[in-house]
Amino acid sequence: MTAPIPLEEAWTRLLAMITPLESEMVAVDDAVGRVLAEPLVARRTQPWADLSAMDGFACAGEGPWRITGESRAGQAFDGVVTSGEAVRISTGAAVPEGADRILVVEEALVEGHELAATEAPEPGRHIRRRGFDFASGDILMEAGQRVSPAGLALARASGNGTLTALRAPRVTLIECGDELVADPLECPDDRLPASNGAMLGAMASQAGAIVQRIGPVADRKSALREAFETARGNDLIVTMGGASVGDHDLVKPVLEELGAELTFWRVAIRPGKPLLVARWEGTLILGLPGNPVSSFVTGKLFMLPTIGVLSGEARPLPVPIPIPLRGSLPEGGPRREFRRARLVDGEACPIEQRDSSALRALAQADLLIDRPAHAGEAKAGTPVPCYWIANGANA
């Protein structure tokens, strides 16, 4: 049996196996979560003209001024403002030709058509200059960026109705184990409600994948072989459970019988060592451990980057954030460890429970602390690399 390989080597070997999917045209309103295959280019200039950033008066020169009209959003003042004149103006309305400053309502003194200021506005005050956000032809997002809700707004505001994005990966999740029951309401005490498939499915969906779930699949070669046949042709197959060395861990032998090419097996991390990576007829296969925390951690470290590369992400690997420790951590063991932690007042507070089956501790966690093998003691206040896992805390 070969020794577990380091995480960085596993990442390098995994990512080298993956080719981004083909691109397609997507309606802009359907593009959130998709990765751009081509840059997003502005088709218009924003703002289209000099606009007022405040409600008030567009003034020419030093006051006092005489009010000669109004400029509203969507209905600009039709004329020129000369020195000593002003027009009423609303937020987002075009600044008339000749006006060089905005006097806000709160600082205006109005008597009939006469206008004065409690405090004289400086030239250029409260004016959003034409094109300060973007100009027609500007590249607003590069290829490889994932479209966020803010990116959707940017695409629409820049005049785009469609985007060129990579196809969403088709991912099949196969949950293995005789002990698992699909319906949590009909689960006897001596068995377990299946949870990994739902958890990994939610993670994959949030990453932009189209998810198919199979299982629970019984610990029989024929049942597992049938599940693989059902998943045939998808972009990624992820199994949960059955990837270790027990008598009932059948993923590896079944893949070998199907003619799959095993790329590597076992990674030197805790939790999640019995990770398997293979290719079967052009489909990438990730065999994740069955313990839920191990499944989550390897899903975070391997499944999500795989989906990212398939989707076209330019930077698919997770990026650690240095966060100071709340409390201390003892010396580390022989394997690199990912410790669950809470975010408390801007500090990473390690959760004492480390068992890889403990779901409550996982659901309470906001972070994974990345502890290198044989790490020395880390004292309170020491910055430690953390991966954000977004379980609900507000950073």
From TrEMBL:
One Pfam family matching this protein: MoCF_biosynth
Required cofactor names: Mg(2+)
EC number(s) given by UniProt: 2.10.1.1
Keywords, sorted A to Z: Magnesium, Metal-binding, Molybdenum, Molybdenum cofactor biosynthesis, Transferase
Transferase recorded as keyword: yes
Class of this enzyme: transferase
SUPFAM superfamilies: MoeA C-terminal domain-like (SSF63867), MoeA N-terminal region -like (SSF63882), Molybdenum cofactor biosynthesis proteins (SSF53218)
Domain MoaB/Mog: 172-309
The keyword Metal-binding appears for this protein: yes
Pathway linked to the protein: Cofactor biosynthesis; molybdopterin biosynthesis
Catalytic activity: adenylyl-molybdopterin + molybdate = Mo-molybdopterin + AMP + H(+)
Purpose: Catalyzes the insertion of molybdate into adenylated molybdopterin with the concomitant release of AMP.
Family, similarity comment: Belongs to the MoeA family.
Protein name, entry field: Molybdopterin molybdenumtransferase
Gene source species: Qipengyuania spongiae
